[in-house]
Amino acid sequence: MTSHIAGRSTSLDRAAQALLAEADALARRIVAQLVHELPAYARLPREQLDGDVLTITADGVRTFARLLRSRADRRLPADYLAALSSSAAQRAEEQIPMSDVMRAYFVGAQLSLEHLDMALGPDVHTQMVELIRRTFDYLQEVTAGVADGYARERRLTLGETLSARLQLGNALVEGAPDDAVAEAALLAGVEVAPAYTVVALRVSEDRPGPADAPARRTSESTNAEVIRARLVREVRSHLLGSLDHDVLWLPNYRDALILIPFDPAERRTGLRPRDFDRVSAGLTTPVSAGIATGASAASGVSVAARTAIEVRDLVERLRRKPGCYELADVALEYQMSRPGPGQRALADLVSPLTGERDLRATLQIFIDENRHRTRTARRLGVHPNTVDNRLRRIASLTGLDPTRPHDMTRLEAAMAAALLGS
Q1: Where is the RsbT co-antagonist protein RsbRD N-terminal domain (predicted)?
Q2: In this predicted model, what pLDDT tens digit does every residue of 284-337 receive, in sequence order?
Protein backbone atom coordinates (compact mmCIF):
# COMPACT_ATOMS: atom_id res chain seq x y z
CA MET A 1 0.00 0.00 0.00
CA THR A 2 2.79 2.37 1.01
CA SER A 3 4.77 1.67 -2.13
CA HIS A 4 1.65 2.29 -4.25
CA ILE A 5 1.13 5.73 -2.68
CA ALA A 6 4.82 6.50 -3.02
CA GLY A 7 4.72 5.52 -6.68
CA ARG A 8 1.73 7.71 -7.28
CA SER A 9 3.38 10.65 -5.55
CA THR A 10 6.56 10.14 -7.55
CA SER A 11 4.61 10.17 -10.81
CA LEU A 12 2.78 13.37 -9.91
CA ASP A 13 6.03 14.93 -8.71
CA ARG A 14 7.56 14.19 -12.10
CA ALA A 15 4.51 15.69 -13.80
CA ALA A 16 4.83 18.83 -11.69
CA GLN A 17 8.53 19.09 -12.43
CA ALA A 18 7.90 18.65 -16.17
CA LEU A 19 5.44 21.57 -16.13
CA LEU A 20 7.66 23.82 -14.01
CA ALA A 21 10.67 23.20 -16.24
CA GLU A 22 8.78 24.36 -19.34
CA ALA A 23 6.31 26.82 -17.75
CA ASP A 24 7.32 29.86 -19.81
CA ALA A 25 7.54 28.00 -23.12
CA LEU A 26 4.25 26.22 -22.45
CA ALA A 27 2.58 29.52 -21.56
CA ARG A 28 3.68 30.96 -24.92
CA ARG A 29 2.15 27.96 -26.72
CA ILE A 30 -1.08 28.39 -24.78
CA VAL A 31 -1.31 32.10 -25.69
CA ALA A 32 -0.66 31.26 -29.34
CA GLN A 33 -3.45 28.69 -29.21
CA LEU A 34 -5.81 31.24 -27.65
CA VAL A 35 -5.14 33.63 -30.53
CA HIS A 36 -5.78 30.79 -32.97
CA GLU A 37 -8.99 29.48 -31.36
CA LEU A 38 -10.63 32.58 -29.86
CA PRO A 39 -11.16 35.66 -32.08
CA ALA A 40 -11.61 37.88 -29.02
CA TYR A 41 -8.02 37.16 -27.96
CA ALA A 42 -6.77 37.60 -31.52
CA ARG A 43 -8.00 41.21 -31.38
CA LEU A 44 -5.87 42.06 -28.34
CA PRO A 45 -2.69 44.10 -28.98
CA ARG A 46 0.52 42.07 -29.27
CA GLU A 47 2.13 43.88 -26.35
CA GLN A 48 -0.80 42.89 -24.14
CA LEU A 49 -0.67 39.25 -25.20
CA ASP A 50 3.07 39.22 -24.50
CA GLY A 51 2.51 41.11 -21.25
CA ASP A 52 -0.24 40.50 -18.68
CA VAL A 53 -1.94 37.67 -20.66
CA LEU A 54 1.31 35.71 -20.90
CA THR A 55 2.11 36.45 -17.24
CA ILE A 56 -1.20 35.14 -15.87
CA THR A 57 -0.93 32.12 -18.19
CA ALA A 58 2.54 31.23 -16.94
CA ASP A 59 1.38 31.71 -13.35
CA GLY A 60 -1.47 29.34 -14.11
CA VAL A 61 0.88 26.64 -15.38
CA ARG A 62 3.08 26.94 -12.27
CA THR A 63 0.06 26.93 -9.94
CA PHE A 64 -1.32 23.82 -11.63
CA ALA A 65 2.08 22.16 -11.27
CA ARG A 66 2.21 22.93 -7.54
CA LEU A 67 -1.31 21.54 -7.16
CA LEU A 68 -0.10 18.25 -8.65
CA ARG A 69 2.77 18.16 -6.15
CA SER A 70 0.57 18.96 -3.15
CA ARG A 71 -0.05 16.05 -0.76
CA ALA A 72 -3.10 17.44 1.08
CA ASP A 73 -4.26 20.96 0.28
CA ARG A 74 -5.90 21.15 -3.12
CA ARG A 75 -6.98 24.76 -2.78
CA LEU A 76 -5.31 27.33 -4.98
CA PRO A 77 -3.20 30.06 -3.32
CA ALA A 78 -5.09 33.22 -2.42
CA ASP A 79 -2.62 35.49 -4.22
CA TYR A 80 -3.05 33.53 -7.47
CA LEU A 81 -6.86 33.64 -7.20
CA ALA A 82 -6.69 37.40 -6.59
CA ALA A 83 -4.47 37.87 -9.66
CA LEU A 84 -6.75 35.62 -11.72
CA SER A 85 -9.84 37.58 -10.65
CA SER A 86 -8.13 40.86 -11.50
CA SER A 87 -7.14 39.52 -14.92
CA ALA A 88 -10.74 38.42 -15.57
CA ALA A 89 -11.95 41.91 -14.63
CA GLN A 90 -9.55 43.41 -17.16
CA ARG A 91 -10.85 41.05 -19.86
CA ALA A 92 -14.39 42.20 -18.99
CA GLU A 93 -13.30 45.82 -19.38
CA GLU A 94 -11.90 44.91 -22.81
CA GLN A 95 -15.31 43.45 -23.79
CA ILE A 96 -14.03 39.88 -24.13
CA PRO A 97 -16.95 37.48 -23.51
CA MET A 98 -16.80 35.64 -20.20
CA SER A 99 -17.25 32.34 -22.05
CA ASP A 100 -14.00 33.02 -23.93
CA VAL A 101 -12.16 33.92 -20.73
CA MET A 102 -13.23 30.63 -19.16
CA ARG A 103 -12.42 28.65 -22.30
CA ALA A 104 -8.89 30.08 -22.15
CA TYR A 105 -8.21 28.20 -18.90
CA PHE A 106 -9.57 24.96 -20.36
CA VAL A 107 -7.31 25.44 -23.37
CA GLY A 108 -4.39 25.90 -20.96
CA ALA A 109 -5.30 22.75 -19.02
CA GLN A 110 -5.61 20.75 -22.24
CA LEU A 111 -2.21 21.82 -23.56
CA SER A 112 -0.64 21.15 -20.16
CA LEU A 113 -1.95 17.58 -20.17
CA GLU A 114 -0.77 17.09 -23.77
CA HIS A 115 2.68 18.34 -22.72
CA LEU A 116 2.79 15.80 -19.89
CA ASP A 117 1.74 13.03 -22.25
CA MET A 118 4.59 13.90 -24.62
CA ALA A 119 7.17 14.47 -21.85
CA LEU A 120 6.43 11.51 -19.57
CA GLY A 121 4.34 9.06 -21.60
CA PRO A 122 3.51 5.79 -19.77
CA ASP A 123 4.97 7.07 -16.50
CA VAL A 124 2.10 9.55 -16.10
CA HIS A 125 -0.53 7.27 -17.64
CA THR A 126 -0.51 5.07 -14.54
CA GLN A 127 -1.84 7.99 -12.48
CA MET A 128 -4.26 9.37 -15.08
CA VAL A 129 -7.30 9.18 -12.76
CA GLU A 130 -5.58 11.21 -10.05
CA LEU A 131 -4.17 13.61 -12.64
CA ILE A 132 -7.62 14.24 -14.08
CA ARG A 133 -9.09 14.66 -10.59
CA ARG A 134 -6.57 17.35 -9.76
CA THR A 135 -7.12 19.00 -13.12
CA PHE A 136 -10.80 19.30 -12.26
CA ASP A 137 -9.89 20.67 -8.82
CA TYR A 138 -7.85 23.36 -10.55
CA LEU A 139 -10.50 24.21 -13.16
CA GLN A 140 -13.27 24.33 -10.57
CA GLU A 141 -11.54 27.02 -8.54
CA VAL A 142 -10.31 28.86 -11.62
CA THR A 143 -13.77 29.15 -13.21
CA ALA A 144 -15.22 30.40 -9.92
CA GLY A 145 -12.50 33.04 -9.67
CA VAL A 146 -12.96 34.12 -13.28
CA ALA A 147 -16.73 34.40 -12.88
CA ASP A 148 -16.34 36.47 -9.70
CA GLY A 149 -13.83 38.92 -11.17
CA TYR A 150 -15.65 39.25 -14.49
CA ALA A 151 -19.07 39.73 -12.88
CA ARG A 152 -17.71 42.29 -10.40
CA GLU A 153 -16.25 44.41 -13.22
CA ARG A 154 -19.41 44.11 -15.34
CA ARG A 155 -21.55 45.22 -12.40
CA LEU A 156 -19.28 48.20 -11.87
CA THR A 157 -19.26 49.13 -15.56
CA LEU A 158 -22.99 48.60 -15.93
CA GLY A 159 -23.64 50.64 -12.80
CA GLU A 160 -21.57 53.55 -14.10
CA THR A 161 -23.24 53.41 -17.53
CA LEU A 162 -26.71 53.17 -16.04
CA SER A 163 -26.01 56.06 -13.68
CA ALA A 164 -24.78 58.23 -16.58
CA ARG A 165 -27.84 57.39 -18.70
CA LEU A 166 -30.15 58.16 -15.78
CA GLN A 167 -28.39 61.48 -15.33
CA LEU A 168 -28.92 62.32 -19.00
CA GLY A 169 -32.59 61.29 -18.93
CA ASN A 170 -33.26 63.29 -15.79
CA ALA A 171 -31.49 66.33 -17.25
CA LEU A 172 -33.80 66.21 -20.30
CA VAL A 173 -36.96 65.64 -18.25
CA GLU A 174 -36.10 68.37 -15.76
CA GLY A 175 -35.38 70.90 -18.50
CA ALA A 176 -31.72 71.35 -17.58
CA PRO A 177 -29.62 73.88 -19.55
CA ASP A 178 -28.18 72.69 -22.86
CA ASP A 179 -24.62 72.56 -21.51
CA ALA A 180 -25.70 70.33 -18.61
CA VAL A 181 -27.52 68.02 -21.05
CA ALA A 182 -24.45 67.91 -23.30
CA GLU A 183 -22.16 67.06 -20.37
CA ALA A 184 -24.51 64.27 -19.21
CA ALA A 185 -24.65 62.88 -22.76
CA LEU A 186 -20.84 62.84 -22.96
CA LEU A 187 -20.59 60.86 -19.72
CA ALA A 188 -23.25 58.41 -20.94
CA GLY A 189 -21.66 57.98 -24.35
CA VAL A 190 -24.99 58.86 -25.97
CA GLU A 191 -25.68 61.41 -28.68
CA VAL A 192 -28.59 63.70 -27.81
CA ALA A 193 -31.38 63.28 -30.37
CA PRO A 194 -33.11 66.33 -31.90
CA ALA A 195 -36.39 65.18 -30.34
CA TYR A 196 -37.83 62.50 -28.08
CA THR A 197 -41.10 60.68 -27.74
CA VAL A 198 -41.82 60.40 -24.02
CA VAL A 199 -43.86 57.46 -22.76
CA ALA A 200 -45.13 57.59 -19.17
CA LEU A 201 -45.66 53.96 -18.19
CA ARG A 202 -47.84 52.39 -15.52
CA VAL A 203 -48.10 48.65 -14.93
CA SER A 204 -51.72 47.62 -14.49
CA GLU A 205 -52.82 46.33 -11.10
CA ASP A 206 -55.18 43.91 -12.88
CA ARG A 207 -52.97 41.37 -14.57
CA PRO A 208 -54.20 38.13 -16.11
CA GLY A 209 -53.44 34.82 -14.49
CA PRO A 210 -54.85 31.42 -13.51
CA ALA A 211 -58.05 30.96 -11.58
CA ASP A 212 -56.28 31.05 -8.23
CA ALA A 213 -54.55 34.37 -9.00
CA PRO A 214 -56.84 36.58 -6.83
CA ALA A 215 -56.21 34.42 -3.78
CA ARG A 216 -52.51 34.39 -4.50
CA ARG A 217 -52.38 38.17 -4.84
CA THR A 218 -54.10 38.51 -1.47
CA SER A 219 -51.61 36.22 0.19
CA GLU A 220 -48.77 38.22 -1.36
CA SER A 221 -50.16 41.60 -0.35
CA THR A 222 -47.36 42.15 2.16
CA ASN A 223 -44.87 41.83 -0.71
CA ALA A 224 -46.79 44.09 -3.10
CA GLU A 225 -43.83 46.35 -3.79
CA VAL A 226 -41.54 43.39 -4.51
CA ILE A 227 -44.11 41.90 -6.88
CA ARG A 228 -44.63 45.23 -8.60
CA ALA A 229 -40.89 45.74 -9.03
CA ARG A 230 -40.65 42.31 -10.67
CA LEU A 231 -43.48 43.14 -13.06
CA VAL A 232 -41.84 46.45 -13.99
CA ARG A 233 -38.55 44.63 -14.67
CA GLU A 234 -40.37 42.20 -16.97
CA VAL A 235 -41.98 45.09 -18.85
CA ARG A 236 -38.64 46.92 -19.05
CA SER A 237 -36.85 43.85 -20.43
CA HIS A 238 -39.50 43.32 -23.12
CA LEU A 239 -39.79 46.95 -24.20
CA LEU A 240 -36.09 47.76 -24.27
CA GLY A 241 -35.49 44.59 -26.25
CA SER A 242 -37.99 45.84 -28.86
CA LEU A 243 -36.97 49.50 -29.07
CA ASP A 244 -33.89 51.43 -30.20
CA HIS A 245 -30.75 50.86 -28.12
CA ASP A 246 -30.46 54.60 -27.40
CA VAL A 247 -33.76 54.58 -25.52
CA LEU A 248 -33.48 56.08 -22.01
CA TRP A 249 -35.41 54.37 -19.20
CA LEU A 250 -36.14 56.42 -16.08
CA PRO A 251 -37.68 54.52 -13.14
CA ASN A 252 -39.76 55.90 -10.26
CA TYR A 253 -42.11 58.07 -12.28
CA ARG A 254 -45.00 55.73 -11.32
CA ASP A 255 -43.62 53.35 -12.78
CA ALA A 256 -41.27 54.72 -15.46
CA LEU A 257 -40.61 57.23 -18.20
CA ILE A 258 -39.21 56.04 -21.53
CA LEU A 259 -37.42 58.55 -23.77
CA ILE A 260 -37.33 57.35 -27.38
CA PRO A 261 -35.10 59.38 -29.74
CA PHE A 262 -36.08 60.39 -33.26
CA ASP A 263 -35.13 62.97 -35.88
CA PRO A 264 -37.93 65.11 -37.40
CA ALA A 265 -35.61 65.93 -40.31
CA GLU A 266 -35.91 62.31 -41.40
CA ARG A 267 -39.68 62.81 -41.62
CA ARG A 268 -40.23 60.59 -38.65
CA THR A 269 -43.00 61.76 -36.36
CA GLY A 270 -41.89 59.74 -33.37
CA LEU A 271 -43.58 56.78 -31.77
CA ARG A 272 -47.39 56.84 -32.02
CA PRO A 273 -49.82 55.13 -29.59
CA ARG A 274 -50.56 52.36 -32.10
CA ASP A 275 -46.81 51.76 -32.50
CA PHE A 276 -46.36 51.43 -28.75
CA ASP A 277 -49.40 49.14 -28.48
CA ARG A 278 -47.84 46.92 -31.12
CA VAL A 279 -44.48 46.81 -29.32
CA SER A 280 -46.16 46.01 -25.98
CA ALA A 281 -48.51 43.38 -27.45
CA GLY A 282 -46.27 40.53 -26.29
CA LEU A 283 -46.48 41.53 -22.63
CA THR A 284 -48.34 39.27 -20.21
CA THR A 285 -48.77 42.23 -17.86
CA PRO A 286 -51.17 44.96 -19.09
CA VAL A 287 -49.75 48.48 -19.15
CA SER A 288 -51.26 51.93 -19.42
CA ALA A 289 -49.24 54.75 -20.91
CA GLY A 290 -49.41 58.39 -21.82
CA ILE A 291 -47.35 59.55 -24.79
CA ALA A 292 -46.14 62.96 -25.97
CA THR A 293 -43.33 64.33 -28.13
CA GLY A 294 -40.95 67.21 -27.59
CA ALA A 295 -37.71 68.66 -28.94
CA SER A 296 -34.61 68.13 -26.84
CA ALA A 297 -33.83 71.86 -26.87
CA ALA A 298 -35.56 74.59 -24.85
CA SER A 299 -37.24 72.27 -22.32
CA GLY A 300 -39.25 70.51 -25.00
CA VAL A 301 -38.70 67.07 -23.46
CA SER A 302 -39.64 68.44 -20.04
CA VAL A 303 -42.99 69.70 -21.33
CA ALA A 304 -43.60 66.43 -23.17
CA ALA A 305 -42.83 64.45 -20.02
CA ARG A 306 -45.33 66.46 -17.94
CA THR A 307 -47.98 65.97 -20.63
CA ALA A 308 -47.33 62.23 -20.90
CA ILE A 309 -47.55 61.81 -17.12
CA GLU A 310 -50.79 63.81 -16.91
CA VAL A 311 -52.35 61.79 -19.73
CA ARG A 312 -51.33 58.49 -18.14
CA ASP A 313 -52.65 59.50 -14.73
CA LEU A 314 -55.88 60.82 -16.28
CA VAL A 315 -56.45 57.54 -18.13
CA GLU A 316 -55.88 55.67 -14.88
CA ARG A 317 -58.41 57.84 -13.02
CA LEU A 318 -60.91 57.36 -15.83
CA ARG A 319 -60.40 53.58 -15.51
CA ARG A 320 -59.80 53.21 -19.21
CA LYS A 321 -58.65 49.82 -20.44
CA PRO A 322 -54.86 49.31 -20.70
CA GLY A 323 -53.20 50.84 -23.72
CA CYS A 324 -51.30 53.88 -24.92
CA TYR A 325 -53.03 57.26 -25.08
CA GLU A 326 -52.02 60.71 -26.28
CA LEU A 327 -53.56 64.03 -25.31
CA ALA A 328 -55.88 64.07 -28.34
CA ASP A 329 -57.46 60.83 -27.10
CA VAL A 330 -58.58 62.43 -23.84
CA ALA A 331 -58.64 66.15 -24.69
CA LEU A 332 -62.21 66.67 -23.46
CA GLU A 333 -61.59 64.76 -20.25
CA TYR A 334 -58.31 66.63 -19.79
CA GLN A 335 -60.12 69.95 -19.81
CA MET A 336 -62.84 68.60 -17.52
CA SER A 337 -60.26 67.41 -15.03
CA ARG A 338 -59.86 71.02 -13.89
CA PRO A 339 -62.22 71.50 -10.89
CA GLY A 340 -65.01 74.04 -11.24
CA PRO A 341 -68.79 74.50 -11.61
CA GLY A 342 -68.76 72.95 -15.10
CA GLN A 343 -67.28 69.73 -13.79
CA ARG A 344 -69.81 69.55 -10.95
CA ALA A 345 -72.75 70.26 -13.30
CA LEU A 346 -71.71 67.46 -15.61
CA ALA A 347 -71.21 65.02 -12.74
CA ASP A 348 -74.72 65.76 -11.52
CA LEU A 349 -76.15 64.34 -14.76
CA VAL A 350 -75.27 60.80 -13.66
CA SER A 351 -75.94 61.28 -9.94
CA PRO A 352 -79.20 59.24 -10.27
CA LEU A 353 -76.97 56.24 -10.93
CA THR A 354 -75.33 56.54 -7.49
CA GLY A 355 -75.65 53.18 -5.80
CA GLU A 356 -76.55 51.47 -9.10
CA ARG A 357 -73.32 49.54 -9.44
CA ASP A 358 -74.37 47.38 -12.42
CA LEU A 359 -75.73 50.34 -14.33
CA ARG A 360 -72.61 52.46 -13.82
CA ALA A 361 -70.36 49.54 -14.83
CA THR A 362 -72.46 48.90 -17.93
CA LEU A 363 -72.40 52.56 -18.96
CA GLN A 364 -68.61 52.84 -18.44
CA ILE A 365 -67.86 49.71 -20.47
CA PHE A 366 -70.36 50.82 -23.14
CA ILE A 367 -68.31 54.03 -23.41
CA ASP A 368 -64.97 52.14 -23.45
CA GLU A 369 -66.21 49.82 -26.20
CA ASN A 370 -67.32 52.74 -28.39
CA ARG A 371 -71.03 51.95 -27.86
CA HIS A 372 -70.76 48.38 -29.12
CA ARG A 373 -73.39 46.37 -27.21
CA THR A 374 -72.02 42.89 -28.10
CA ARG A 375 -68.48 43.68 -26.89
CA THR A 376 -69.96 45.34 -23.82
CA ALA A 377 -71.97 42.21 -23.05
CA ARG A 378 -68.88 40.04 -23.55
CA ARG A 379 -66.82 42.09 -21.10
CA LEU A 380 -69.62 42.08 -18.54
CA GLY A 381 -70.26 38.37 -19.01
CA VAL A 382 -73.98 38.91 -19.70
CA HIS A 383 -76.38 38.51 -22.63
CA PRO A 384 -76.67 41.49 -25.06
CA ASN A 385 -80.35 41.76 -24.12
CA THR A 386 -79.26 42.43 -20.53
CA VAL A 387 -77.14 45.31 -21.80
CA ASP A 388 -80.17 46.71 -23.66
CA ASN A 389 -82.30 46.47 -20.54
CA ARG A 390 -79.70 48.29 -18.47
CA LEU A 391 -79.29 51.04 -21.07
CA ARG A 392 -83.06 51.61 -21.00
CA ARG A 393 -82.91 51.79 -17.20
CA ILE A 394 -80.09 54.38 -17.43
CA ALA A 395 -82.22 56.47 -19.81
CA SER A 396 -85.15 56.27 -17.42
CA LEU A 397 -83.12 57.41 -14.39
CA THR A 398 -81.02 60.16 -16.02
CA GLY A 399 -83.28 61.35 -18.84
CA LEU A 400 -80.37 60.74 -21.25
CA ASP A 401 -80.60 57.84 -23.70
CA PRO A 402 -77.24 56.07 -24.27
CA THR A 403 -78.41 54.90 -27.71
CA ARG A 404 -78.82 58.51 -28.95
CA PRO A 405 -75.50 60.12 -30.05
CA HIS A 406 -76.22 63.56 -28.56
CA ASP A 407 -77.28 62.14 -25.20
CA MET A 408 -74.39 59.68 -25.18
CA THR A 409 -71.86 62.48 -25.63
CA ARG A 410 -73.27 64.18 -22.52
CA LEU A 411 -73.31 60.90 -20.59
CA GLU A 412 -69.69 60.22 -21.53
CA ALA A 413 -68.64 63.66 -20.32
CA ALA A 414 -70.73 63.25 -17.18
CA MET A 415 -69.14 59.91 -16.32
CA ALA A 416 -65.67 61.39 -16.81
CA ALA A 417 -66.53 64.41 -14.63
CA ALA A 418 -67.93 62.14 -11.91
CA LEU A 419 -64.77 60.01 -11.88
CA LEU A 420 -62.43 63.00 -11.94
CA GLY A 421 -64.34 64.84 -9.23
CA SER A 422 -64.54 61.86 -6.87
Answers
A1: 24-164
A2: 778 888 999 888 877 899 999 999 999 999 888 888 888 889 888 888 778 777
Task: Mean pLDDT check: name the lowest of 73-82, 372-381, 398-407.
Answer: 73-82
Question: How many domains does the structure of the chain reveal?
Answer: 3
Of 301, 335, 369, the last residue of a domain is 335
Residue 108 has pLDDT above 50, yes or no: yes
Q: Are 115 and 64 in contact (CB under 8 A)?
A: no
User: Could you tell me if 330 and 397 lie in one domain?
Assistant: no
Sheet strand arrangement including 287-295: 248-251, 256-262, 195-203, 287-295, 323-326
| Mean pLDDT, residues 357-375 | 90
Digit-coded pLDDT (tens) for 145-177: 888 888 877 766 666 777 888 889 999 999 998
Residue 288 lies in a domain: yes
Please tell me which residue, 223 or 183, carries the higher pLDDT value: 183
